Amino acid sequence: GENVEQHPSTLSVQEGDSAVIKCTYSDSASNYFPWYKQELGKGPQLIIDIRSNVGEKKDQRIAVTLNKTAKHFSLHITETQPEDSAVYFCAATDGNNRLAFGKGNQVVVIP
Amino acid sequence: EPEVTQTPSHQVTQMGQEVILRCVPISNHLYFYWYRQILGQKVEFLVSFYNNEISEKSEIFDDQFSVERPDGSNFTLKIRSTKLEDSAMYFCASSTGVDTQYFGPGTRLTVL
Question: What are the C-alpha distances in Å from B57 to residues A26, B8, B25, B60?
Fold first, then answer.
């Protein structure tokens, strides 16, 4: 089955700087890659997703890039703010409804 | 904005007891899921449900687990005889199609 790895496990950034989280996946058949943000005591919230027919997608301060050849995808957060502090999960699926998640990345934005 | 809701937020049970975790998916969604997250580990897929039947299940979802949509709004996960290793956060999710899944806040299950 699909195996998703996520790096780094913890990332600290100064407020206003950019944060980048990288994920790799193993199944070349995977075609949908969502990113979730999880705040303390809450469930994962979808923040952006990308499909395999697209190389990049942007939504305000958040962007995701996908490299199908290398089987990796990345989340970019620009102009980070304290409210961006959370755990971020990447995931992948080949369309069989089963999301395979990375282990999560704790992002800490230092004011 | 519509949300997936889950009850209870925290369930404590004795080993060997049955538990039922409840979810109310987003109303126009057709696909329903359960995932779990053991402390410090990845979120793991358990089962997906569509058209009143299981469409996919993982190796974790053994005979101790069952799912049901008893009415038009609820979606439940039952664990018949809980084990210590069932302690985890259980997340329900729903979607309109086969990809974008929206998650509930989770139920923390503690088995003593």
Answer: 20, 23, 19, 8
Show the tokens assigned to B16.
């060997």
Q: Determine the pLDDT at residue B14.
A: 97
Q: What is the pLDDT of residues B74-102, one digit of tens each?
A: 999 999 999 999 999 999 999 998 778 99
CA distance, residue B108 to nearest chain A CA (Å): 10
Q: Is the peptide bond before B105 cis (omega within 30 degrees of 0)?
A: no
* Average predicted confidence (pLDDT) for chain B: 94
Q: State whether residue A80 is helix, strand or coil.
A: coil
**Peptide bond preceding B8: is omega within 30 degrees of 0, i.e. cis?**
yes
* Rounded average pLDDT over B25-38: 94
Q: In one letter, which amino acid is A56?
A: E
To the nearest whole percent, how much of chain B has pLDDT over 90? 84
Contacting residues of B for A46, CB less than 8 Å apart: 100-103
**CA dihedral (B49, B55, B81, B35) positive or negative:** negative
Q: Is B101 on the interface with A (CB under 8 A)?
A: yes
Both tokens assigned to A95 = 């369309």
